[in-house]
Amino acid sequence: MNDALSIARDLVRCPSVTPADAGALGVLEKALGAAGFEVHRVTFSEPDAADVDNLYARIGSNTPHLTFAGHTDVVPPGDETAWTHGAFAGEVRDGFLYGRGAVDMKGGIACSVAAALEYLRDNGGKPKGSISFLITGDEEAIAVNGTVKLLQWVAARGEKFDHCVLGEPSNVETLGDCIKVGRRGSQSGTLYVDGIQGHVAYPHRASNPVPDISRLIVALSDEPLDHGSAQFQASNLEFTSVDVGNAAGNVIPGQARAKFNIRFNDLHDQESLRTLVETRLAKAAGNRIKAHIAWEPSNANVFVTKPGAFTDLAVAAIEQVTGRRPELSTSGGTSDARFIASYCPVIEFGLVGQTMHAIDERTPVSDLEKLTRIYRRLLDRYFG
Ligand SMILES: [Zn+2]
After folding, report:
1. pLDDT (tens digit, 9 = 90+) per residue, 187-239?
2. Residue 23: partners with Cβ closer than 8 Å, 6 or more residues away
3. How remote is the CA of residue 282 from the centroid of ligand 1, in Å?
4. How far is the CA of 165 from the centre of ligand 1 (A)?
5. Which of 157, 172, 185 is nearest to 302 (CA)?
6. Residues 223, 237, 241, CA angle at the centre, nearest 5°?
């Protein structure tokens, strides 16, 4: 049985809590292999991390090349006795498929596989271009042996993608309300202010970094980084902790530090952002305050897929099936789309995210059917 519900149930029944595969990729290998896909199973390793299985499957050798990306790993079920139906039983009750991964994102993968198989069946077993699946088992945890390496592995074979659909649960309330077309970047750092340690009774012999770091925190927090762009809300710098590590009540501390995180839009990249903040810091500190920032390494750069032919195609397919015109959104946290965006334009569209990572994660079976029809319409239009 190759309908979305059967594939989703088979996947949910594999308890593939990261980094375990528990047979999940085998379910896809079997279904895709039988339809003529060339299927590769690739295991990646990293010191001090578990080995993780990944899958890349492709049919066709021509362009355009559309890839469906996703992850078969899931977060732990939590207290399994709290589930109304078993977390890995794949039960259907009252029109809902229950189970960990039902929406995030085994259900989404099942719909894309079902849609591709249906498309091939109706088109003589061959796409006009190429269809592929880029599926990792390492997304929910540290994500070092997953999509990043799989993308490099595919590129090393000389293969290129033209477009990608990542089936993460992008919808907020109802199927069809939201396509994610980008994410803000993230950059963390620590602000240090050096003073001179001394006795509180003799402040003239010391230099207290506490009032000085307070001034700098206010200066850096008060001035907006920008006022938003066409597709993004304004960037934001947020201080998250202030610390002097001083246990004594009669000592002026020698150093103060404050941690912060910046969520930034497409008006910046990491380098220009660091320069902007450091320039403002130098101005606020003047010649008197000794301050510097230690930046943390970050691979979360901003990305956006500009509205155009590809997003129009997705919007039309969604509207045709659901009657809703989805918003093109750049809100929310990060996903593997940030890695894919370096290779080709990527959009995220999947099921409704409401119950993801929760007890009783579930999706209406009717949403699985509709999402399959949306992906199918998208394939028809893409290769049409
Ligand atoms: Zn996910």
Report:
1. 999 999 999 999 999 999 999 999 999 999 999 999 999 999 999 999 999 99
2. 14, 16
3. 41
4. 13
5. 185
6. 115
Summarize pLDDT for 96-152 with one digit per residue, the tens. Answer: 999 999 999 999 999 999 999 999 999 999 999 999 999 999 998 878 899 999 999
pLDDT score of 1: 67
Q: How far apart are CA 229 and CA 232, in angstroms?
A: 5
Q: Pull the structure tokens for residue 89.
A: 């039983």
C-alpha 105 to ligand 1 mean position (Å)? 5
Token representation of residue 347: 């959009």
Q: Which residues are catalytic?
A: 73, 139
CB atoms < 10 A from the CB of 235, how many?
A: 24
Q: How many Å lie between the centroid of ligand 1 and the Cα of residue 149? A: 18
Q: Give the C-alpha separation, 37 to 45, whole Å.
A: 25
Q: Is 50 exposed, middle or buried (0-12, 13-18, 19+ CB in 10 A)?
A: middle
3 state DSSP class of 71: strand
Q: Give yes or no for residue 16 having a pLDDT over 90.
A: yes
- Which residues is 251 bridged to in the sheet? 199
DSSP sequence for 239-259 = EEEEE-----SSEE-SEEEEE
Answer whether 377's CB lies under 8 Å from 317's CB: yes
The alpha carbon of 112 and the centre of ligand 1 are apart by a number of angstroms equal to 15
Distance CA 310, CA 279 (A): 39
Per-chain residues with Cβ under 5 A from ion ligand 1: 104-105, 168
Q: Which helix (H) or strand (E) holds 194?
A: strand 185-194
Q: Is the bond leading into 64 cis (omega within 30 degrees of zero)?
A: yes
Of 354, 382, 364, nearest to 104 by C-alpha is 354
Of 55, 279, 51, 328, the C-alpha closest to 179 is: 328
Residue the block writes with tokens 């990491």: 270
123 DSSP assignment: T
* Tokens read off for 167: 């089936």
H or E element: which one contains 225?
none
Q: How far is the CA of 198 from the centre of ligand 1 (A)?
A: 52
